[in-house]
Amino acid sequence: MAAPTRIRLVYGALAVATLALAAWFLVWSDAPAARYARMPCQYRAIYGASGPVGGVVLGTSRAQHGIDPARLQEQLGSGPIVNLARGGRGPGQLRQMLLDLDEARGIDGPIIFEYSPEDIAFWRDEPLYYQYMPNEGQRLRLAALADDWRGKPREPLYSRVRDTLAHVEMRFDTGIETLLTGAWRANRGQGEARSEWCRTGEWIAPNAGENRQLNRRERAVRRRVGDVSRWREQAPNPETAFTVNQDLQNAVVDDVIALARERGIPVLFVLMPEYLAEPYAPAFLDAFERRFGVPLVVPDAALSGDRGRFLDVFHLDRAGSADYTDWLAERIRRSS
């Protein structure tokens, strides 16, 4: 055999081997142990126990720290409730966790989904906008990447292609790190879930920095209405829930509603308490219900005005979490 032919065969074999390795790697990175390598508590809550759950909480760190699943389970007299909420999430990640939980264990009770009505500025600063975090691609199944196109109806085609390729690149980058560091091994052979609440720390009282944040909010309210006790007189939040940057979250809301109806279980879309928050305009709440066919649950105003129930402006402390969980349980009972 001539030397050029042998060289072509060698290079051809290397190309085939490289493609096969890449295909194997992408399949491996789709496994839950790899996708949840940096979310071990969420992995345990989904895969570390068997049997249907009595409910699930999904959202940001506000819901992560503000809804006590054990207390909610006791109030509702249901099966185990898991709180999978996580700070710095994107809607696609929340949907993925919901689908993984439903596939692994089944869901018999309410889905509680924290809706983010604000078109938050830092989302727009990311290369993948539409309420994305850049590293979200490592946690989505590969099949979910193409489906995300449906949630970006106003994004140009070149941007959709860019986003999808960036997700695949992120899957390779983080997957290689996960494989080489062995981080995925922590999710293998897990026994019964140690915790159904993926909360970090005790969150009992504000520290100095958090107190300064609370003080700044009080000063801002005084500038607007003259006295903290009149905080409910603030102008409503600006309407941003149906801007282009919210398209993906709203598509996920449609998916969650469809899953809940298919399973015959209730779904609640909630706004989490915020200290001395501006009120939500009735027109916005009406628009949400018209768009989705379900109401948006607004937190009790009395709780939002109680500084002693907040760790910082955006997060409830342990006492606030207990109060909000009790209040939410009553809303769930009324809606059932």
Notes on the structure:
With 336 residues, the chain is mainly alpha-helical. 51% of the residues lie in helices and 5% in strands. It has 14 helices and 5 strands. The chain has a 5-stranded parallel beta sheet, sandwiched between helices. β4, α12 and β5 form a beta-alpha-beta unit. α5 runs parallel beside α14. The N and C termini lie far apart (77 Å). About 2% of the residues have low confidence.
SSE layout:
Blueprint: H1 3-29, H2 32-35, H3 40-47, E1 55-58, H4 61-66, H5 69-76, E2 81-83, H6 91-104, E3 111-114, H7 121-124, H8 142-147, H9 157-181, H10 208-225, H11 247-263, E4 267-270, H12 282-292, E5 296-297, H13 301-304, H14 318-335
Parallel strand pairs: 1-2, 1-3, 3-4, 4-5
Entry keywords:
336 residues; mainly alpha; 5-stranded parallel sheet; 14 helices; 5 strands; elongated
Structural class by secondary-structure content: mainly alpha
Question: Over the alpha carbons, how many angstroms does the gyration radius reach?
Answer: 23 Å
Biggest sheet record:
5 strands, parallel
CA distance, first residue to last residue: 77 Å
Instruction: Classify the oligomer.
Output: single chain
Count of runs of 4 or more consecutive helical residues = 14
Note the overall shape: elongated
Percent helix range: 40-55%
User: Proportion of β residues?
Assistant: 5-15%
H-E order: HHHEHHEHEHHHHHEHEHH
What is the average of the pLDDT values?
84
Taking pLDDT < 50 over at least 5 consecutive residues as the criterion, the unreliable ranges are 190-195
Q: How many strands in all?
A: 5
Biggest β-sheet: strands ordered side by side in the sheet: 2-1-3-4-5
